[in-house]
Structures are given as C-alpha cells and as structure tokens.
Amino acid sequence: MTLTLFFHPFASYCQKVLLALYENQTPFQGELVDLSNEASRTAFLKLWPIGKFPVLRDAARERLIPESSIIIEYLAQYFPGSVELVPEDPDRARETRLKDRFFDCHVAEPMAKIVTDRLRPSGQHDPFGVEQAKAALLTAYGIIERDMARRTWATGESFSMADCAAAPALFYADLVLPLTEAYPLTKAYLSRLVARPSMARVLEEAAPYFKLFPR
After folding, report:
1. Global pTM?
2. Of the candidates 8, 5, 10, the residue with the CA atom closest to the CA atom of residue 115
3. Looking at the predicted structure, is the pLDDT value of residue 215 above 90?
C-alpha cells in the first residue's frame, strides 16, 4: 500500500489526520506507535527523530511527511476526494488554513496544557499555567460561538481541513473545560462534528484508551 500513517488513535493530532483520510476514504495502512514500548519507540525515532506523531509515509513518491496540517495538505494535493479539504480558491484556502491554526493553537494547545498538568507528579503542578490555559480556552470558545452564528462548519457550509482540526480539539477541550449553556452554538457545532461518520469512527477506535484520559 502506498500510504502508511504512523500514529496513535488516542492522540488528537493523529485523529485530525484520520478524519481527513476517512472523509475521502483514502486507502492507507496504519502503523500504531507506542512510545512506552522500547522497540516501537526506537523504530519510530529512527524514522522521525523528533518523535512526534502523526507521520505519513508515501512509498510511491518516497516522501515522509510529518505534522498534521502538512499531511492533510499533502492528501488534498495528491489524494483528493469528494471532500475538498483545502479549497482551490486562494481566499477560501487562506481562511481554511487560518481556522486550522486557530483550532490547533488556541484550542488543542491549551487543552493539552491542562491535561498534561493533571498527569504531573504531586508537587510539580503548574496552577498558574493551567489558569492561563483555561482563560485561553474560554477566549477561543467565545470566538467559535461568534463564528457559528453564521455558518455550519468552521469556514462556511463545506467541511474542510479546519473541521478536521476542530473535531478532536473541541471534543477533548469539552472534557477538561466543559462547554456551558453560554456557548449553545459551539455545543451544536461539536455535536455536528461528533455525529459525522468519520468522527464516529475515530472515537470508536480511540475508545479503548479513554480510560487513560485524566478527568
């Protein structure tokens, strides 16, 4: 098979790429990376010394593509399907990339800060950093709420790379800082994302690992 995705089904950035693959039913082989396993970790670091997933390998083109957004851009270019992940129109493409970065940097990143702090040993927590992360998430929620007043998906009426970023980021963020009744449009958007067959499949595959999530 041409494409191999090195990933873990529980990781939000891996889920982002899985959504893109599932949306267009792009054939690929999944290679699960377990960083707690010495053999798996060593093999992955040999492939990509940075040690962060997901990473996509295209054997036919002899390309190794890291970083979730770049992987989706690559899929949009070389493996397009019925879902236009990155629009051809330059203005719409720029808006899609902006929203993709928004969900990665302003939802997924502060969410991860809160989660990792909960996993720290006693006495090594960062309460100030967590409060900053929560404040950042609330700001992001407010922006999403404003935007969703006039659109169905992240950039309008078409599902795109931006929604691939939004789905896992918002799903996990809602677990660490729940969307209250102050954000009805954002809650409705998350419900639409979760109801999408691609996201339902992603969550089903991640389900065995949910017990590891620090509530």
Report:
1. 0.96
2. 10
3. no
Question: Which residue is it, tokens 């989706």?
Answer: 72
Mark whether 185 and 123 lie in a shared domain: yes
Three-class SS state of 43: helix
CA distances from 1 to 28, 30, 51, 83, 177 (A): 7, 10, 23, 22, 40
Going by C-alpha positions, the residue among 164, 191, 137, 185 that lies closest to residue 83 is: 164
Same domain, 72 and 99: no
Distances (CA, A) of 118 to 138, 152, 180: 19, 33, 21
- Joined tokens for residue 28: 């690929």
CB-CB contact of 123 with 165 (8 Å): no
Tokens of 24: 């267009």
pLDDT tens-digit series, residues 33-47: 999 999 999 999 999
Enclosing domain of residue 172: 90-196
**β-pairing verdict for 55-58 and 29-32:** unpaired
